[in-house]
Amino acid sequence: MNLQTVPERIRSFLLVRLFFTAFAIGVSCITSLASNADSLPESATSRVVSAANSFLSTLSEKQRPAVLYKFDDDKQRARWSNFPTGFVPRGGISLKDMSDAQRSAAMALVASALSQRGFEKVQQIMEGDEVLKSQPDNGPGGGRRGGGPRDGGPPDRRGGGPGFGQGDSMFGKDLYYISILGTPSEKDPWMLQFGGHHLALNITIVGEHGILTPTLTGAQPALYTTNGKTIRPLGPENDKAFALLDTLDETQRKQAILNYRLADLVLGPGHDGEKIQPEGLKVSAMNEKQRAMLLDLITEWSGIVNDSYAAERIAEIKAGLDDTWFAWSGPTTHEEGKNGTAYYRIQGPKLVIEFAPQPIGGDLTMHVHTMYRDPTNDYGRGVIKK
Amino acid sequence: MKAGIVAVIFAILVLPKPVFAHRLDEYLQATIVSIEKDHVAVQMRLTPGVAVFEKVIAAIDTDANETISDSEQAAYAEQVRRDLSLTIEGHPSQLQLLSSTFPPVDQMKQGLGDILLDFKADVPAGGTNRRLILENHHQSRISVYLVNCLSPSDPDIHITNQDRNYDQSFYQLDYTQTGVISNSLVADGRSGVSDWLDKTGSRSLFKAYVYQGIHHILTGYDHLLFVSALVLAATTLWDVVKVVFAFTLAHSITLTLAALNMIHLSERVVEPMIAASIVFVAIQNVFWPRRARGWTRLFAAFLFGLFHGLGFAGGLLDAMRQMPNATMLLAILAFSIGVETGHQMVVLPLFTLLKTARQVKSDVVARTHLSMAFQRIGSAGISMAGVYYLWIALGCRL
Asked: pTM for the whole thing?
């Protein structure tokens, strides 16, 4: 069509339409770019910081100081244990003392720092404590094993709460405490703690690094049924270890299996930074399949944190794999679908994992404590020094 | 208050299926040993469970006033110290209490309190190879023990072996301590190699591994039987030198490769092969005495030497693998020299004895017969011992 032949009015109309069309396209492009910018992948730390700030914003003026500690508060840093909170009080506030919204925000914060599988493991440990609570034989009493901070409990910043012999229930999925050391930041170091009976997550965040050590996980009962589903919170930690043991030849087994009883964790609470002489079978004497199985077993701990933090961790574990040792004490078989009764330890230059079945409850297969450490970087001290 | 404790214990014992969260009925004694050049530190963490609290506190709070006075703390620490036994190099060593921390009685009553005791003992000056034995008999009827050694922070100290009994009340720690320069050596004029050894702090390590090599051969009857069978067939010193060299060369190669983790062969193969090597050379000596000299014998010594190299002490190999590569190669060299020295300590007297015995007869023909008789009779005995070793080695597989 020749525009010269089009009447002036129609020509003006078409030009105006053209202008507005171009304007609309321009605006939609800019909007689209802007929205794309919003959906650019967030860093792992920014997501955790954002979740932390969201959680803190739900707290009342009275609650917030109970959750926040100074980053250099080493007493609070070490205030974790395998014991029920009724025996070893934790710092921070418990899920029990939160509103529904606060509890959701707290769990969202924990979830943001963990992988999907890691969060699921944490929930299964907590649910296990709920099952333990419902068992009729749980009476008051005392415990002995494992330990907690030596300085006693934290100052009572909540004006009451669970204490020794207060008559409060010792178990349950709401008796898990959250605390933050320092100020949530994408650059400066800070720390998220979440724990209670059989759980102590100590996550130090330094820029893009997320350090999970030291962390304790445990389970009692180690097997339970909920909503018709059978749950083994630390089942893979058991099954993968036995599967690895089964692949060892006679010479390897002789080295891996220790000739003495290990009744408990060696590097449980209170043993920060200790590095014991390794024993057992050195990974350099394992074949490729066995090394892959060991790494897969290690990811049950290293993979508790979100994928971004875990990738860095597994890379450093791989770097020291040749100098890593696998030691075993106890029976070499287990009933399928249940935990065994053997202790094992994986120890490398930057790694200690212990898996220690516990006799309390009368059945070693139903009660286990595990420990996950990096003696060179517990609480991120190695990274912070740099 | 005591009634409360009794009630708890009663509940624990009487309830049909106790499911309380933590162990109650044991006294956990976790010990960490830390080795330094001139002393050893022993830290004990004692945690009584609720069910044994009464028994433990009775030994601590002797006046039963529910507080632990300074004098009661000191007395209990002394009680524990007396129940420990520490020997270094076979000599009893005196542990000194450095510090003690006791938790409040209330915490202990809950099964939470840790008693911390720090001891120290001087390590006497002495050789490079050290052996420490720690025994703990404190409250043995109610206790469970854990004992471990911290990885030494001093690069001159290397743990070579740890051994325990089943309940860990007995703990033996073997370690080497290098970097200690002997005064007599300092006074001597030294070669360049000697200077280098001292400068790198490796002289003591070298000596330690030479000693380990000698010790290994003199206590390794399978190696000794094999070498003796080689010597029985040798008629001249040159024959002896050749076969022993072939054997040493071969086992040094495989030992090095094993320490570097470049080869790995199951004990199920190595042990029977070592036993078979004894049987093979001994039978060759008996039935084919002429082939027991010359290239066939050198080849056999070398081939079987490869397996003997893989049969050296696993614990020592583990210790070597923890060393930096240069140090490890030095340790292997020293160990091989020790092995060779150990061989010569057996081979030379044996060969001299045989040589002397063979010369008893003046008649040359009679001498040859006598020599052959020594070779055959001695080898027959060795072959029987070899068959026994082979039986044991194969028996392990059943």
From this structure: 0.68
Find all residues with CB under 8 Å of A326, minimum gap 6, and list them.
A244, A256, A280, A281, A283, A286, A294, A344, A345, A346
Q: How far apart are the first and last CA of chain B?
A: 59
Is residue B151 pLDDT above 80, yes or no?
yes
Reported ipTM: the value is: 0.78
Residue A153 one-letter amino acid: G
Q: Which residue of A has its CA nearest to B166?
A: A260
| pLDDT-based confidence at residue B341 (cuts at 50, 70, 90) | confident
Q: ∠ CA A215-A220-A226 to the nearest 5 degrees?
A: 110
Separation between Cα atoms, residue A218 and residue A358, nearest integer Å = 10
**What single-letter DSSP state applies at residue A82?**
S
CA distance B183 to B199: 14
DSSP output for A309-343? HHHHHHHHHHHTGGG-EEEEES-S---TTS--S-E
How far is Cα A239 from Cα A340, in angstroms, rounded to an integer? 8
Q: What is the largest CA-CA distance in chain A?
A: 103
Alpha-carbon distance A276 to nearest alpha carbon in chain B (angstroms): 4
Q: What is the DSSP string of A114-150?
A: B-HHHHHHHHHHHHHHHHHHHSTT-------SS---T
B96 neighbors B148 (Cβ within 8 angstroms): no
What would the mean pLDDT of B284-310 be, rounded to a whole number?
Answer: 81
Mean pLDDT value across chain A: 86
Interface contact flag, B114 A255, Cβ < 8 Å: no
pLDDT band at A139 (very low <50, low <70, confident <90, very high): very low
Contacts of A223 in chain B (CB under 8 A): none
Contact A142 B111 (CB under 8 A): yes
